[in-house]
Amino acid sequence: MWASIQNIEQPATLLEANKLNDNKNSVLFSGGTYLVAQKSKEVHTLIDINHLIASKIAEEGEQISIGAGVTLQQMEGHFDKDVIGRSAHQSCYSKNIRNQRTIGGEIAQKSTTSQINVLLHAINVNLKVFVNDRTTEVDINSWDGEGIISEIVFAKDRNVDVKGYSVIPSAPPFIVVGYNYTTKMCVIGGRTNGFANFVVEDGKIDEAVEEKLAEFFADDHHGSCNYKRHLVKVALRDFTG
Amino acid sequence: MKVTFTLNGKETKAEFAPGETLFHYLRSQEIYSVKNGCELGECGACTALVDNKAQNSCLIMMHTVEGKKIETVENLGSKNNLHHLQQKFLDEGAVQCGYCTPGMILASEALLRENKQPSTEDIRDALAGNLCRCTGYVKPIKAVSHE
Ligand SMILES: Cc1cc2nc3c(=O)[nH]c(=O)nc-3n(C[C@H](O)[C@H](O)[C@H](O)COP(=O)(O)OP(=O)(O)OC[C@H]3O[C@@H](n4cnc5c(N)ncnc54)[C@H](O)[C@@H]3O)c2cc1C
Ligand code: FES
Ligand code: FES
């Protein structure tokens, strides 16, 4: 029971949903795996957007589009052994949860321990986001967190990989490294405050990046900052041979 | 609030408070096979089938079940007429206290509905979100493998 909930709104349009989402006691609701587990007492109104966002994956010409309501399990099924399918699978040990958790919620939640989210940042997918009164397209690395994500769009032709390091396979990884072979962009997540990204040529990290990583990682029970920097280098060496 | 859905094969109209989860509703209907392990989505003791897929009922808000097909273990078998998975769990000794068992059986049933011949890896994956504190996983996996 989520005792603080007084209202559930099922708006007819994204515009209406956006208007309803204008105070701290309301929250957009899709898969609900984060929100219902948290049961924040501050939330009094759920704005259900499930009927407003697509839950299909479409491949047309050179482009793939994923509705924000698509679950991680659907992604795993569709992309199967591809890195997208694999990382959707690895983002959550529980199939029960993957059956419910949406990719829109994953991106909106800015989940840094999610391998699929790090991978989407490495691809630098475009998000279709409804802000104010219209849908705009913005790349995931530039998205400011405002609005309602309705779709994720990217080119079929992509050359990316991702790797996670965790204490045991079912635990969320404390470091996730994504790499785009085409743009040479490396994206790092895990038990971190947000994502770090930088360009890495030939698997070599320059001094500026070393400094950035030293600030980015903290010493904790998963290991020292140095150890984590080392893991990033190992991942990059594996990616770039 | 009101919602209409199919519960264990019967068309059901439910009235519920806005913050009610499917888990609470099911228990209130004396469907006691769904168990409260954590109410955080971590343990799978509250597993139900939603349109043939296993999900944790403690994370499902009641308003989202409109038009859906919800099943619990009560729909699979009964005391005198066990479902073949229930029988297999017994035969393999895959049940000790039984708290996790309804969830394990539903997660296994969901897997077998989509894949009649799952590999051990498929079974491990399907059961990974269902925690067991006494039997462990070897025997439940064996019970499903022998299907
Ligand atoms: C057992 C368990 C394990 C978990 N493990 C992990 C883990 O390892 N790593 C991890 O990162 N998370 C984890 N989570 C948290 C949760 O599953 C993720 O945050 C998930 O991405 C939430 O997706 P959802 O569709 O369920 O979103 P919801 O819970 O519905 O929403 C999440 C947030 O996103 C917003 N939102 C949802 N959809 C949209 C949209 N289309 N546009 C804009 N905003 C939107 C909501 O307002 C909310 O703030 C776990 C949760 C559980 C219960
Ligand atoms: S009680 Fe629902 S997952 Fe634990
Ligand atoms: S049999 Fe007791 S928790 Fe699994």
From TrEMBL, chain A:
Transmembrane segments: none annotated. It comes from the Bacteria. Residues 1-159 form the FAD-binding PCMH-type domain. Coiled coil: none annotated. One of its GO terms (molecular function) is oxidoreductase activity. This is FAD-binding PCMH-type domain-containing protein. It comes from Uabimicrobium amorphum.
From TrEMBL, chain B:
Pfam families: Fer2, Fer2_2. GO terms for molecular function: 2 iron, 2 sulfur cluster binding; metal ion binding; oxidoreductase activity. The keyword Oxidoreductase applies. Residues 1-76 form the 2Fe-2S ferredoxin-type domain. Keywords: 2Fe-2S, Iron, Iron-sulfur, Metal-binding, Oxidoreductase. It comes from the Bacteria. This is (2Fe-2S)-binding protein. It comes from Uabimicrobium amorphum. The lineage of its organism: Bacteria, Pseudomonadati, Planctomycetota, Candidatus Uabimicrobiia, Candidatus Uabimicrobiales.
